[in-house]
Amino acid sequence: MENAVRIQTFSIVAGSEACNARCPFCISKMTLPFGVEPKEPDVNWRNFEIACRFAKQNNCTTVMLTGKGEPTIFPEQVTKFLETLRPYEFPFTELQTNGILISEKTDVYSPYLNSWRELGLTTIAVSIVHYEPEKNRQVYLPYKKEYIDLARLITTVRRHGLSVRLTCILSNGFIDSPEKVKRLIQFAREHDAGQLTLTPVNKPDEELSQNKEAWNWTKDHHLSDDQWKEIQTYVHVNGNPLMRLVHGAMVYDVSGQNVCLNNCLSVQADAEDMRNIIFFPNGDVRFYWQYPGAILLQGWPQKKDSKTC
Ligand code: SF4
């Protein structure tokens, strides 16, 4: 590349497709077999170091450890990623999780939270669809009687000296109106979740049509244009705009609560800045989730796949 670009986020796909949740909109989930300890997937560490250097040289400020499945299923691998990242001194390092293991096995994960904080982790981003436990249970844990205690999870993470972001997927029948957004903002503020991101679930597309369950769910639950506009208007009227992020998302202060209105899959081909680079465990380094052609570096050969959001 001739000119320096500004990379906003360096996303790292940690773990495998294994997940302990069953979100109906997820195309990459893989059921965890009961009683079988899943094998930690191999990582192409050579290409990871190249991706770290590239992100650092292009002024990346934020690293996001995420996954096609749930990254906390492989906590030792999260530790290895953080150890490798540490010399690069990225200011913000975040872990995207459904929070289930941290909540259900706090005794096991508390030492990890401590060591991850020492290794530079700054933020735990918890995926949700609602402030009501039953709504979250329907999406994340339909095979269980109860969802986790979200308020207690936030307290646990905060007590370990880490920031919390609630990342809420907006969908029809869940958070789908200004009134529900207002209550979600109250919930975040009351429970000390410093940041709240609102992202509408993707409309069904060709890719999802390969997974009938995910396609049907998003067809039935994506927000209408009017619903999304009403929510945007509510946040805009009741909040103070603070910052427009590189990819067009807007950050507001709404009654003292940080709220980010996000649109997950926007493509800005003419932008000079690169929104994201994404490292995959096989060593592929890409710059859009949804386009196989957006590749910077090829790793070990692998089967083709992509992530919902
Ligand atoms: S969306 Fe995330 S939490 Fe839900 S099943 Fe997929 S990987 Fe798991």
UniProtKB/TrEMBL annotation:
<dbReference type="GO" id="GO:0003824">
    <property type="term" value="F:catalytic activity"/>
</dbReference>
<keyword id="KW-0949">S-adenosyl-L-methionine</keyword>
<dbReference type="InterPro" id="IPR007197">
    <property type="entry name" value="rSAM"/>
</dbReference>
<feature type="domain" description="Radical SAM core">
    <location>
        <begin position="5"/>
        <end position="240"/>
    </location>
</feature>
<dbReference type="InterPro" id="IPR050377">
    <property type="entry name" value="Radical_SAM_PqqE_MftC-like"/>
</dbReference>
<keyword id="KW-0408">Iron</keyword>
<protein>
    <recommendedName>
        <fullName>Radical SAM core domain-containing protein</fullName>
    </recommendedName>
</protein>
<dbReference type="GO" id="GO:0051536">
    <property type="term" value="F:iron-sulfur cluster binding"/>
</dbReference>
<dbReference type="GO" id="GO:0046872">
    <property type="term" value="F:metal ion binding"/>
</dbReference>
<dbReference type="Pfam" id="PF04055">
    <property type="entry name" value="Radical_SAM"/>
</dbReference>
<keyword id="KW-0479">Metal-binding</keyword>
<dbReference type="InterPro" id="IPR013785">
    <property type="entry name" value="Aldolase_TIM"/>
</dbReference>
<dbReference type="InterPro" id="IPR058240">
    <property type="entry name" value="rSAM_sf"/>
</dbReference>
<keyword id="KW-0411">Iron-sulfur</keyword>
